[in-house]
Amino acid sequence: MSADLFDAINQNTRATGQWGKGKAPKIPAYPRPQAKKAEKKKNKAVKPRSVAEIYKHFQRR
C-alpha cells in the first residue's frame, strides 16, 4: 500500500509541477516484492469449490 501511495504522490508531483515543456523529472517507482515461482504454482493448483461442495463440507460431522 505504501508503494501505491508513493507512486501516486510522484505522479501528482509530476503533473502539477512548474516544469518546462517535456522536462518533468523522472522519479523512480517504489520497489515492489516479486512473487516466488513456488508460490505461483501452489496457488494455481487449488481448484475452486462449487457451492454444493462447500455445503456438503459443512454438513459433515
Tell me what you see in this structure:
- The protein is mainly α and 61 residues long.
- 54% of the residues lie in helices and 0% in strands.
- The chain has helices spanning 2-16, 37-45, 51-59.
- The longest helix has 15 residues, at 2-16.
- The chain is elongated and about 70 Å long.
- The mean pLDDT is 78.
Helix content: 40-55%
Structural class: mainly alpha
- Largest β-sheet summary: none
* CA radius of gyration: 23 Å
Count the beta strands.
Answer: 0
Count helical runs.
3
Question: What is the secondary structure topology, with strand pairs?
Answer:
Layout lengths: L1 H15 L20 H9 L5 H9 L2
In short:
The chain has helices spanning 2-16, 37-45, 51-59. With 61 residues, the chain is mainly α.
Features:
61 residues, mainly alpha, 3 helices, 54% helix, 0% strand
